[in-house]
Design goal:
It contains eleven helices and nine strands. The chain has 287 residues and is of the alpha/beta class. It has two domains: 64 residues, Orthogonal Bundle (Helicase, Ruva Protein, domain 3); 193 residues, Rossmann fold (3-Layer(aba) Sandwich), CATH 3.40.50.150.
């Protein structure tokens, strides 16, 4: 039987030959999952034999990856802000840059907001990754996690239960804020913001994610406009909205936000790559 070192090398070469990005890292991750080993173990136990059954499981993963099925869907999970969330092809795969939404929400909640018992709406919750992290780090907060499809909320519900926050995360189905039953202090939203005509140009893996979670209409801002409109009635007087979007869209949305909230103010936060990514909208201008 082949040993672990050889299998990792072989898997790396196969993925690289297939044009898979980050082939070495993905080879290690796939082998770790097939072998049920921690990352440090696959390096410390290089001479461990790989059984025929394990090799067959790895080959099955590789066939799926050759078709450019995203690695996170193959594994059925993804790490996000320190927790693992279960994923299916019904939900968008959480990105590292979206962790900035969580960080900014926590900063606002812990440092800059008046209420100690916050009510938060996570709009377009997907896997529930944002809502769960907010519930974990803000144990006194009430959180509404909203999406538009039962299949999406099924995934979110599972993750919410697994992480033990079902008593504080209220799942709701509906159009953006329509299903949130009360005014909120904070709206956090990673809505679809990719322009429709850009979808066919995306990486092949991304094109296998749900179009509903990617397509933001002709300029990518259809849902953002609707959210701002609904927020006029659902955001408390001191409330804050956090929106993730493309840096090129931020100036347009800043103008829209001030049309809806003329007494408000906006600021911009950058992602891990130093790109403008998160728009912060204060209903009342910060003094």
């Amino acid at each position: 039987m082949p040993v672990l070192r050889t299998v990792i090398q072989d898997t790396h070469q196969k993925l690289e030959a297939a044009g898979i990005p980050d082939a070495r890292l993905e080879a290690e991750v796939l082998v770790m999952n097939v072998m049920h080993m921690a990352r440090q173990s696959i390096f410390a136990e290089q001479e461990t034999e790989v059984s025929a059954q394990q090799q067959a499981a790895l080959d099955e993963f590789l066939e799926r990856r050759y078709s450019r099925e995203p690695l996170a869907y193959i594994l059925g999970q993804r790490e996000f802000y320190g927790i693992n969330v279960v994923l299916t092809p019904a939900v968008l795969i959480p990105r590292p840059e979206t962790e900035g939404l969580v960080e900014q929400a926590l900063f606002m909640a812990l440092m800059g907001m008046e209420s100690t018992e916050l009510t938060i709406a996570d709009v377009g919750t997907g896997s529930g990754a944002i809502a769960i992290n907010l519930a974990i780090h803000l144990p006194s907060a009430k959180i509404y996690a909203v999406d538009v499809e039962d299949a999406v909320l099924d995934v979110a519900a599972y993750n919410v239960r697994v992480h033990g926050v079902a008593d504080r995360v209220n799942l709701a189905i509906g159009d953006l804020l329509d299903s949130v039953p009360e005014p909120v202090d904070l709206i956090v939203a990673n809505l679809p913001y990719i322009p429709t005509d850009r979808i066919p140009t995306l990486q092949l893996e991304v094109q296998q994610e749900p179009v509903l979670a990617l397509d933001g209409g002709p300029d990518g801002l259809d849902l953002v406009r609707r959210l701002l409109n609904q927020a006029e009635d659902k955001l408390k007087g001191h409330g804050i909205i956090l929106l993730e979007m493309d840096s090129e869209q931020i100036p347009v949305v800043q103008e829209l936000a001030l049309q809806h909230f003329p007494e408000g103010s906006t600021s911009v936060e950058q992602d891990l790559a130093g790109m403008d990514r998160i728009l912060v909208i204060h209903r009342q201008a910060v003094e």
